[in-house]
Amino acid sequence: MLLEVRRKVYMRSVSGVFARWRWILVWFTQVLFYGLPWLNWNGRQAVLFDLAARKFHIFGLILYPQDFIYLTGLLIISAMSLFLFTTVAGRLWCGYACPQTVYTEIFMWIERRIEGDRARRMKLDAAGFSSRKLRLKVAKHAAWIAVALWTGLTFVGYFTPIRSMLGQLFSLSLGPWQTFWILFYGFATYGNAGFLREQVCKYMCPYARFQGVMFDRDTWIITYDPGRGEPRGARSRKSGSAGKGDCVDCSLCVQVCPTGIDIRDGQQYECIGCAACIDACDQVMQKVGSPQGLIRYDTLNGMEQGWSRAQLWRRVFRPRVLVYSVILLSVTGILFGHILTRTPVKVDVMRDRGALSREVKNGVIENVYQVMLINSAEFERSFDLSVQGLPGMRIDSERRVTVPGASNRVVAVRVRSEPDSGETGSNPVQFVVRAADDPTVVQTAKTSFFLPEQIQ
């Protein structure tokens, strides 16, 4: 068969150190995701990617399409972080912070609260139709849909002011764009976290396929110790272990796995590194009186050679890790350093397309430009315009321009120069824009000044 028929995974609930960390990350990411759109900053939404106005507000930082380079930097940082974390400790992102993992945890918590734990859910699904089964299924899906729609609303709230959008929703006046994306993102959340679950990780996510390239024999991954666990099998209180390994073959490590794999079969690309099997196995080992760590975070070299924790930690700082770390720190430093020192004004100069130049009174040559001033500060500011590049050139129009906060303004600027001030044709010049209230806030923009050929 080309495609394996899906066997539904009934994940058993588990508690322990790694389960607590997983829920800490669930709470952290979702408080951040659901809460940020409701924060205010200087009378506006603190985080808003306003596509219509082509402005991105991130607290006190205002970005424009001209700041696209920052997005490139963030993507590089994200990629390097993913490479670094994966090289050091496997699929940490997948197991603890990936949206698919986070929302699957939330949806499974709802499922357990309504339908019960693993055994009850299996029994309910196997049972025939009944009013109780219908009631439980309807309640579960209603809760899932409510969470999914609120997630979709929150997502769109990063691109449209969420308070006004909520008012439009209650008044049934929501626009088609917002309606489509709320339903689309809500449906994706509902389908991925409620139904597809491990199928997204196994077949849809490309990370599962290329993760092996980033692993090496010194990567900390979830491993089963066969030397200690085999031969596996149940044991009685009278006979004790009877020559068997520490693994009692309880299959709890399989029952708690969100992708339904058996970690005892060795390394598998389906493993998302959530460490649920470690929590389950440690509890069993504690009950049977065996040392914990039959399933643990370890490296292939460490497992084979019996390395101590100190030896494992020394191998963390290997060349690949150091290269990723240097690149990550360098790009992060450059990006945030540039953001902190960026000039809060941008200038874009466009020549008048109607004519290259024209002759005015006394034979003076005039070029006309459209100058766009973008004020990145959140308060109104005045800017003084000047031009330099040719002897005696000057601006013969408004020299001081006032621009509202977090806005832009386009002004027509007439620049004049003597006909013999430069070479015939295009001459490089530049506009200088300086804040009237702070001379250190200055920006320049290069352009050209055209001088026609003089007729004798």
Keywords:
single chain; 456 residues; alpha+beta; Immunoglobulin-like; 2 domains; five-stranded antiparallel beta sheet; four-stranded antiparallel beta sheet; 16 strands
How is the topology of this model organized?
Layout: H1 17-35, E1 40-41, E2 44-45, E3 47-50, E4 55-58, E5 61-63, H2 68-89, H3 92-97, H4 99-115, H5 118-126, H6 131-156, H7 162-170, H8 176-196, H9 198-204, H10 207-214, E6 221-224, H11 226-229, H12 252-255, H13 276-288, E7 295-298, H14 300-305, H15 309-314, H16 319-341, E8 345-351, E9 358-359, E10 365-375, E11 381-388, E12 394-395, E13 400-403, E14 407-417, E15 425-435, E16 442-451
Antiparallel strand pairs: 1-2, 3-4, 4-5, 6-7, 8-10, 9-10, 10-14, 11-13, 11-15, 12-14, 15-16
